[in-house]
Amino acid sequence: MKRYHYISTIFFSILILFSCKEKGNIIESENENKNESCLSCHSDMKGFTDAHSPDKIGCYACHLGNPNESDKDKAHANMVLIPGNLSNASKTCGTTQCHNDQLNRIKNSLMTTNSGIVSIDKVAFDEIHSSEMFFSIDSLKNSAADSHLRGLCSKCHLGYEKNTYSATSQLSRGGGCIACHLNYKQDKIDIADNFHPSIDLDVDNGKCFGCHSRSSRISTNYEGWFETLDSKDLAHNNKNYRILDDGRLFKKASEDVHHKADMQCIDCHPSYDIMGDGTKYLHSSQAVHINCEDCHAKEKFNTAGLNKFDVNSVLDYFQRGYEKQSKEFVITKKGDIPLVNTYFDENGKAYLTGKIDKKVHDLKLLPITCSANDSVHQKLSCNMCHASWAPKCVGCHTTYDFDKENSNKYKWIELVDDFGYELPVMGVEYIGDKYEIKPAIPGMVMTLDKTKYEGEKHGDNFKFLRYFSPISPHTTSSSRSCESCHSNPYALGYGDGKLSLTKSKWVFEYDYQPSEYDGLPMDAWLGFLSDVKNKRYSGHDNFKPLSLTLQKKILNVGACLECHKEKSFIDRSVNGDFNYLIENMTNKCIKPY
Q: How many other CB atoms are found less than 10 A from the CB of residue 582?
């Protein structure tokens, strides 16, 4: 069954659109806003889009107050200075006459609940034993994990209050609806000069950057920057470095091909990815609907006509003013969500239009190396091969101690030994009786010291963790080489070092010194050719390193690549001849397993 209620005809869709679009989905009686007392003083305000202009919806719909009073103080009584915060959205943006459906979706979205962030932090703090539990960031109490989240993470969610007028910056956090939809388009906007920021659909990448440049650092990855502990002096007049507004130093790496093509985050991610679809999800992997295969299909695209669009997608399509009229559009395989900015020409060729700059991009089918039906590589996620790098952070020390700036208070302090970047590690996500190999990074290779925390405690006061996390790196490029998986110790989870084949036996010499806590190198996920035991390897219950069987299979191919050229070898293997190659090995072939 489809998740969304579809409209049966294009005519009905357009009828709904034109009943709402002049009002930004607000239905009103004619001229009901013309007599608001607000407009007697604020009639010359500029900067609005047509749908949200005061002559269409007045001022009261957003700012409340008393629109029937001419006295300034009485008119401004109970006025909402910053509408759109989730604390007031049900009375402003999200009333039944305006964006009620969107507000209901936002309240349940991961950008509001942060459920996975909370549950995994609680797993690390031994407060729960499974991350498959729902939480909300606005319900934190007094445990050590709650204190840690409140001090370091709780600003990065939509419920965090925006309480001052300001354009979006790298330091912006929260704000509900206006976190994305309020745009200061003039160079300098002063309310006294009768300019009002625009309320519109132009959600550029800067809106995402404030929160998504933290943790897995998706925004900085996408632009081609990795965090480093190098001296900040290196950033002076050096285009290969940048210092963010929060003081962190980043160094240049390769940018994502989609960023190079000037694509915005919203060009790929539909509103149901960002604002949610109304369902309470536990983790982002469940909430994100778009997949690489939607726009880069194996043989043919998953499509639907405009008459199958849900109401929100119809509005999005027409309000963005796309000139390309198409009978068919790409829809996601997961959730059947319309990608409203796609279209097909008369020859059936697929395109994607930038939602802000209207730049047109070709949608290409998968090459044979990706679309071949060999049983092994079909279990790889697209970004396992096509992510050119992922952030690397090892040796983190998290402790509750005196705040140096205010010695009368304690706070959670995080220190890290090393930052960098590498090709991502191979991790295995188990889905029922099936599995998929996905990119992983060191998520928590750390010591956790909560001995001084005086609130509610769980588990050990001091512990060492070695957790890796699944990641979608957003550093897409051409495919990585075969050797980068089959002969790369870091990709296999062993950590950096020298992996060599000696007398039909693989030997590994690690770069990092072993940890005093478990004897493994600090950047490793598991021991060299060790089996995956019944223990926790990640904050996610179903995410683990490669099994010993998979490690041996991968290294077996690595042995073949010691002699055989990659191009000829891959041509044979992806076309189903790999077993034939193995069965017909000669005495000269190295057989480590």
A: 14
CB-CB contact of 444 with 428 (8 Å): no
The half-sphere exposure of 424 on its side-chain side, counting CA atoms within 13 A, is: 33
Please give the DSSP secondary-structure letter assigned to residue 286: H
Q: How many whole angstroms separate alpha carbon 114 and alpha carbon 129?
A: 18
**Angle at which helices 311-319 and 100-108 pack, to 10 degrees?**
110
| pLDDT value for 438 | 97
What distance in Å separates the CA atoms of residue 348 and residue 54, rounded to the nearest whole number?
A: 43
pLDDT single digits (tens) 503-547:
889 999 999 999 999 999 999 999 999 999 999 999 999 999 999
* SS3 (DSSP) at 98: coil
Strands in 267-332 per DSSP E = 303-304, 329-330
Neighbours of 334 (CB within 10 A): 15
Q: Measuring CA to CA, how many Å separate 516 from each of 8, 145, 395, 520?
A: 65, 25, 12, 8
pLDDT digits (tens, 9 = 90+) for 434-472: 999 999 999 999 999 999 998 888 888 999 999 999 999
Q: Which helix (H) or strand (E) holds 548?
A: helix 548-560
Contact 290, 268 (CB under 8 A): yes
Average pLDDT along the chain, 593 residues, taken 10 residues at a time: 42 45 40 76 88 90 94 95 96 93 95 96 96 95 95 91 91 95 71 80 96 94 97 95 97 98 97 95 96 93 93 90 84 96 94 95 87 76 96 93 79 91 97 93 95 87 96 95 94 97 91 94 96 94 96 91 74 61 77 82
DSSP letters, 459-523, are S-SEEEEEEEEE-----B-SPPPSHHHHT-HHHHTS-SEEEEEETTEEEEEESSPBPTTTSSBTT
452, 403 in Cβ contact below 8 A? no
- Residues near 404 by beta carbon (within 8 Å), at least 6 away in sequence: none
**Predicted local confidence at residue 84, as pLDDT:** 96
In whole angstroms, what is the distance from residue 72 CA to residue 18 CA? 36
Using CA atoms, how far apart are residues 464 and 445, in angstroms rounded to an integer? 8
Q: Residue count of the chain, please give it.
A: 593
341 with 316: CB under 8 angstroms? no
Q: How is residue 131 written in tokens?
A: 């991350």
Query: At CB < 8 A and 24+ separation, what contacts does 130-136 make?
Result: 130/541, 131/282, 131/283, 131/539, 131/540, 131/541, 132/282, 132/541, 133/282, 134/280, 134/282, 136/112
